Every structure is written in C-alpha cells, then in structure tokens.
Amino acid sequence: MKKIWIILLSVVLLAGLIAAGIGLRSYYLFLKQPVAPIFNAVPENAVVFVKSGSIADFIEKTRSSGLIEILENMETHKGFHNLSAWVDSASQQDDYLRKLIEENEFLISFSPDSSGRPSFLVAIKIGKIRSGTLKHHLTNIAEKSGYIISSVNHRPAGLYRIWGDSGETWYFSYRGLFVISPDRTLLEQSMEAIHNLAPASKNPALAKLSGTAGKRVDGVLFFRNDLLFSHLTGLDKNPFLIQDSPFNGWSALDLSIRKEKVQLSGFTWNGDEASVLSRQIPAGPVDFSNFPSSAVAGFTLLMSDPAAYTKQFISGDTLHVTGYDTINAIPVREVFRLNEHLWSWMGNSISYVSRTPNLRNNHSSAMLLISSRNRDSAEMALRPFLQAKGGKTEKLMAYGLPSKLWGPWFDLKDPLYCYIGQDVVALSHSRDFLNTYASEQETLAGEVKKSNFVPLANELSDKANVLLYLKPDLLAGSIRNQHKKGDDNPAALWTSYLSGCDKLVMNFNAGSPILYAQGSIHFKENITRSSHIAGIASAKKTESVPEEPEEIKSGNQEQAEIPAVTKKPGKVADFIAAPVIIAGEKPGEKLIAMFTAKNTLEVYDAEGDYKWSFQCRGNVSGDIYQADYRKNGQTHFLVFTDSHLHILDRKGKEVKGSPVALPGKASGAVALFDYDRKRDYRVLYGGHDNLIHNITPKGEPLPDWQKPRFGNLAGIPEFFRTGGRDYLVFGNGEGRLLITDRRGKKRISLPENFRKSHRAELFENKTNSKGLFLTSSEDGRLAYITEKGIISYSSFGDFGKHPWFEYTDFDGDGSHDFIFAGNGRISIFSRMKNTIAMKEARGGQLGKPFVYESVARERWLAVRDEKTDRVIVLRSQGSAKGYEKLSSETDPVIFNPGGRRKEVLVTTRKGKLILTPIQ
Q: How far is CA 485 from CA 301, 479, 492, 650, in A?
C-alpha cells in the first residue's frame, strides 16, 4: 500500500513539474518573441496609412480642427467616429487600456476589402503584454457596453471577435502589436504581414521615408501613389505613373493639423535613380493669375532646363508635323524645329488645368498653358502650324504635338485650338473654353485675376518642379455623380474622405531619387468659419437686461462685431469667478461653467446658449473638477463650496450621496488630486480651524494624514511627482510655503524669512539645475528652491509686491519662459532674460494671466486689469490688435470649441458672456 502512495505521489509531482515546465517554456517563448516594428502591421495591399505617437493625442487634435468633420462624415460609415468613441470609452473605463492608448505609437491603415471599398485597421505598439491580460481588460469594457468577446483558433496567433447588436470587430495581439479592425480578412492579412517580416516594412521606399518623417508633427501620412490614384478615380491607368515617373512609389507627408487646414510636408520616393525630372533644378514661382478663373484641378511642370526635359521624348532637334498653307488654304507637311519654333519663345513651365475634376478623359474641360517670354515671338514661331478660325483662337494643325514634346501626361484629344496671350500660350480641345479664357485674359489685363488658387500662392515655396492643385470636394462630387443613386461605387467611397476639403495644393522639388513635397489641404469655409454668435444662438435679450454703455457697444463691434450673448431670458446675475471650460455629454463637446454671487453654477454651450444651472449649498469658491467619481467610466462634475462638495452628472443633476460635508469647512480654494492616476481621488483644502485637510470624495478623512497646521491657505494646493518622490505644496496669506509628502510630513524645510508671492504658483524647474522648483518671491524676484530647501534668486525687474507669475513656453521655441504681471505691466522673458513681449497697464492691478496654445501652435496671453476691467491680450506671433476696448468683470479664458468654430476668448460684462473669436 505504501508503494502505491509513493507511486501516486511521484506521478503527481511529475505531472506538476511537466505542467510548470510547459508554463515556463511558454513564458520563455513569449519573452523571446521579438517585438515587431509597427510598420509590419500594414497589409500588403494597403493604400494609405497614418502613424502618430499616440492615438488619444491624434483624436484630440482632429477634434480641435475641421478635420473631424471630414473623418466622421456619414459616407465613410462612421469608421473614425466609432474608433474615437471606442478610445473614449476605453480611456474612461480602464486605466490599463488608457495608458496603452495614450503612451504608445499607433497607425491607422486603409485598404480595399473584397469589393474594393475602403476598410481600416488600427495597430498600437504595446510591447511585451500577454494576450490574456489584454483580453481581460477588453472584456471588462465590452461587457459594460453589451458586447461579447469570443476567440477563434488561428495561426500563428489567436483571433478575437467583439460582437453585439450593432456589429462586430476583430482583434489580435502578436509580437508586441495590438491590431483591431471591423474586417476579419484585413486583420488576417495584417497578421500574415507581421509573421512574414512585413513586405511593407522591407520596402526600401518606406524604409527611406520613415527615417525622414515624423519630427515634432501631429502625424505622418504614408500612401502608395499608384494605388491611391486608382482608388480615388476608378482608373487603372495613369499617365503620371508610367516608367520613369517620379511618382511611381510611396510618399510620406508630415501632418500639422490646424483649425482650417492640414499642412503637409515630406518626401516622395520611387527607388529609381533616374526619372523624367532628374537633373532639373527647382524653378518658379508659378503665376496662378494666368489660370482660368474656373480651374478646379491641374498640375504644373517647372523646368530649369526645358530642352533637356524634352529630349527624353524626341530624338534630334526636329519633328515632322502637319502645318497650314495660308495662301493655298490647305494642310501641308512642315518641319517643327525646336530652336526656331519652341525655344525662341517658351518659358520654363507648362500646366495642365481643368474646369472640372473629372479625370476620365474629359478633354472638353482641359487646357494646356505654356509660359511665354514674348507674345510676338510666339505668334511668329507658331504661325506655320495654325489655321485661322476667326476670333482669338486658331486651330493647331500639328496633331499630337504636346505629348510628343512633353510626355503622355500632356496628351489632349485632337483637334486642338490655340490662343496666344501676353504671357502664355493656351491649347484646348474646346473652343468655347478657350474663347472664354481669352476674353478673361484680355478683359482683366493689368488687374488681379481671380483664379481659385491665387490665395494659396503664398503657402508654397518659391521654387519647385511639380505643382499639383485640386478642389477635392468637387472631385468627390464628380465621382459620386458618375454613378446612379444606390450604385455600389468603391471610388465614390474612397473620395468621400475628400468631401469638405476646399482646396489642395502641393509642390514637389525633384531629386535623385527623392522629391521634397510641401503644401496644404484647406477645409471648406462652412466647416471652419466663425459664425456670428447671434446667427448660431438666438439672442435672448429682454427688457430687464440693461443696455451696454455706448463705449462698450463700440468696443464689442470692433471685436469682429461679435455680439454679446445674454444669459437665459429675464435673468442677469453677477459672475464672481473666471469661466471654467468643462466637457459636455458628446465626445469633444466643450461647455462654459460660470459661478454667480448667488452661489449658483450656470453652464453654457460653446455658442453661449444657456444649458442648465445648479444651486449650491454654501459659498462657492469657483472650483469645479471632472472625475470618474464612481470608477465606472462615467465622468462627474465635482463642485466645491466652503462647506460642501456637490457631485453632479453631465446634465447637472446631483447624484445619490451628494452633497458631502467638508470637515472643518474650507477657508479658500480646494484641490482634487489623483496621485497615481488610478481614480483614487483626494480632496485637499485649508480649514477654518487652520488645519490642512485631506479627505476622500465621500468626506472620509485619511487616517494617515497628519493634518499640518499652517494658517489660512492662499492659492490652491499643488502636487508634484519628480525624481521618484511626491511633493504637496501649500502657501498661506503671509507668503510662507509648506512642502510635504502625501501624508502631510514636511519634505523640504525652507528658511523662515522666505516669502513667496501669494499670487504666484510653484513650478517644476525645467530651465536649469539651480533648483527643483521655481516661483516668484513676494518682492518679484525669481526664486529657485532646491530639494534641501536652499533658495537662490534672479531679478528680472521691478514688479511690485506679490506679482502674478507664470512659467511656460510662450514663444514656442521648446524652452520655458518667465511671465511676470505686476506694478502696472506684464512682461515675458526668455531663459536668457531677453524680453519676448511686454505690455503697459499703468496704475493697474493685473489679475492672473491666462496662457493658451492655439491649434496653429501660437501662444496667446490674456489678463485683466482688476481696477478698470480692461483686458490685455498678447500673442507670440504678430500683434494682438482689435482687443484694446474689450473689458471683463472676471478673468478671461480662451478655449477651442471644436471643429466648426474659431477659438474663443471668453469675457463677461453685466451678467453676459461675451465670446470673441481670436483672429
């Protein structure tokens, strides 16, 4: 019997060792598995993909731009909308996923599905994370939304299906990449690309381009020129992409997303050492005023050596073509001599322009424009090849001449007609088009001509080899109209992403084998224009609302005539704190929160329309925070008074368990911290009992908090984590400073005689090694504080007692600047003490400066003179004119309302919000 037990025990131990060995081997293989470059996730048939450092940051940038209106249009099946909604949900409901999304690079790739329609996948570089761990976190948020995750056996890694009533999505985790797509086939192609060392990433063009792209930009756009052209037009053949074309491979363009446009810059490379543009030095610029006013698409070739370019298409110096004998009025055989009939008058450019975006050989809408150095020379040289037809246009008898001289991309259907203008020779298959153009040129001679692309000339570099210009929205409409309603048209779906884009202009500088590219895509005005507030939200004036004084009215009219937006009808209240910008219910929605003297929180939308209000208990402090109070992915508003914490949902309704009484009552501002970003919130404030309190949002005091006694606090408590250590910072009305750890134990001992300006915050020093922190002393000097409590000073001038102080990068050069406001002036200094900007406010008492970085990467500063209510505005680029007469009864703020509207300066006057777009 004893032997049987020994045998059984041995078997169990052996099985355990085998299981442990299998587990260890599996883990070893997992650790040994290489992390693939994110490019490897791109399917072989990918047409275009965008790469950026963080998907969360990229989505936030698009929401601040008109680009969001294009990516989320209905025709694209809300692919980007669903993606951004998923990112929002994952970020709110799961910290683990939020960090993956916020901190890792990603790409979004578009490829044709089996029917040719655009389908996308998203890849995120997550590193060494087990698929089981990822599935656990995804399951948590999927179940909350009513979805189910199931697995499917697949090699070399398992596929997972997320499905529910509204559809399905697939994902896998393999070699350090998390890839998700609504198209299973596309996902399998991506996995195959990763497993087979990614044909895309091994492409020499991509390898070259990826090394030159993505330096401090919002994203990088990669696309295959031939496939993109084919899918946008529905055409298989493109004369631009024949052998020796410089556009035969990939392009990579850095994206800088702005409110009204996307700026593009990067390179095109086809891997060939030679192209038709080889050895051509960039030339130009192009005179867009010579284009037809109706031109909506086209391209221009700029040649430093036109003769060398032409020799690639013809041998010798002559051509045998048809001419016209004017004496006998018959066609004759003529010799076209390049030196005599072309180089005697031709300039360095030739353009193909069209008055429709239809690329399907619509010859009646196309025109060639050859630059001319001398009108008389051109008429004399071309006379043997022209047949007079009456009017300003003549028939060109030399059939096929443009393509013979300049290549197949300039081929037009014969017969062609010719107009010889002052600076240009124009050829077209349509006499009507040519006659209209001739009349336009002759009538507007000496005037500024109104071509569609003239306004964009300043955005291009002075010299280039190729220019491309297009009205993308019209191209999308043209492709869509070529098919009957309800017809499944893949090209229309691809071009639908261009809907809403008004103008595209690009120029390319030839190299060997690389071309530098630069340009921009402008959104349609109705997407980004700043409508008058009264035109968006109905005015709510009533007789009980006092009229503005005459001087205020005129001042507001000078602000781009933006009218004041009144509050809800019949009610005017006294705003007592600066506006607070909070998130609305919809993704990307911004709201304006205001506190009144009657302790009411009032909330308005981005146009100034009243939405809801809440009556608070106690005296409001102006503090409102947004937090996932219940750790369920639902954001709540936490509103503080001197006695209570109110917790409100997104609609302004108080939740169960609110309000929460504040122990000791708050004597000043209240701070909310999430030390470890785990939604474990802490509420800190100074009490009337002169103790500093640290409680949970439920009002529960922390047992390990030491309740330091420090007197009445001035300013808001601050929290820092640097060098692996935590610092809580408190200042009181006497200017003394207390720095503790998160339990309230003093961390840095400061000299007894040090006094901080109670109008200055503390900042982590990012300028030099003089100290861990910096701030302003009470006498207006810059004070550095080391981790041992040693203080050193640096003087920037006389800013009086207790000045405001701000520390940020104002001029956008990558280093922080010093901003002082006091003693009747505001000054901004670089780290070398050079004055960047300065504004006088003699005799004034300046409030807290509000510094804002616009979508255009420009910095704005707005500050109020508390004695006169005058608002002072500074900007990092150019002057801030037009704001001189603007006043406010609260400190101003600037915010971005989203895709359709300009960024807005928010001020108040007699119970009204005044929204002034910054120009």
A: 38, 12, 11, 41
